[in-house]
Amino acid sequence: MAILFTQIVRPSDNRIIVSAECPLSRYFESTHTKVLDDMSSIPGKFPNETQFCSTQSAEEGIIIYFKQFKSITILSAVEVGLSKTSISLFFERLKDLFEKTYGQDVPSDLSYIRFEDVIKEESKKYSKDRGMEETLETLKETKEVCIQNYTNVLQRGHKIEQLEMLGHKLQNISEKFRKKSRKMHVEAVVMQYVFYASILIILFLVLYFFIR
Predict the structure, then answer these.
(1) 144 & 206 share domain
(2) What interhelical angle do 115-128 and 84-102 show, nearest 10?
C-alpha cells in the first residue's frame, strides 16, 4: 500500500507545476498512462471542489485522491488499502511545505522542480509509516470509547433526574399523608371528646328529669 504518484497543479490554469512518483513505485509514468490521463482530467472536472475527494481510476486497485487548496491542487494515485487519514495528512503536509518554500502565490515563471524530492520523501514516509496509522486508529478507538462513556453518563444522568423527580413526588405525597394523618388524628380526638360530652349531657338530663 503506497502513494504511487503525486501531482501539484496550479488552479488558475490547471497546469501541472511539479510531479513525482514514490520511491516504492517503479516506472509509474510509463506503466500507468491511463491513470495519468484520469489525473489530468480531474482539475477540469472539479474546478471548485475544495473537499478531500477520491475517484476510481481506470485501473483496478488504484484510487485517485485530490484536494484543492488556496494556492495549489494536490492529486495522488494511491494503492487501495491505504487509509484516507494517512493520505489526508500527506496532502496537508505537502501543502504546508510547499507554501513554506514558495508562498501562496504560484507564479508561472518560477521553477518548482526541486519540490520533487520533497514529494518523494513525504510519499514514502506516509506510505510506509504504519506506526502513524496504528496510532491514529488507536486514537479513533479511544475517541469512540470516550463518546460512548459520555453517552452512558448522559443516559445515567437522565435516569438520576427521573429518580430525583420520583423522590420529590414521594416526598410530597408523604408530606400530604402526614398532614392528612394529623388532621384525621385531631378530628378523631375531637369526635372522642364530643362523644364523651354527649354522654355526660344525656346523663345530666336523665338525672335532672328523674330528680324532678
Answers:
(1) no
(2) 160
Q: Can you list the alpha helix ranges (DSSP code H) found in 1-32?
A: 28-31
The answer for residues whose C-beta is within 8 angstroms of residue 15's C-beta and 6 or more apart is: 9, 108
Domain count for the chain, please give it: 2
Range of the domain at 134: 3-157
Closest CA to 77 of 4, 168, 182: 4
Greater confidence (28 vs 137) lies with: 28
89 and 108 inside one domain: yes
∠25-42-23 over CA atoms, to 5°?
10
- Give pTM, 2 decimals: 0.58
Q: Does the pLDDT value for residue 68 go beyond 90? A: yes
Q: What is the pLDDT of residue 30?
A: 87
Distance of alpha carbon 182 from alpha carbon 30, whole angstroms: 99
Highest average pLDDT, of 18-27, 39-48, 88-97, 199-208, comes from: 88-97
Strand partners, 65: 54, 76
By percentage, how much of the chain surpasses pLDDT 90? Answer: 39
CATH number of the domain within which 78 lies: 3.30.450.50
More confidently predicted of 207 and 212: 207
The C-alpha cell that represents 2 in the structure block: 503506497
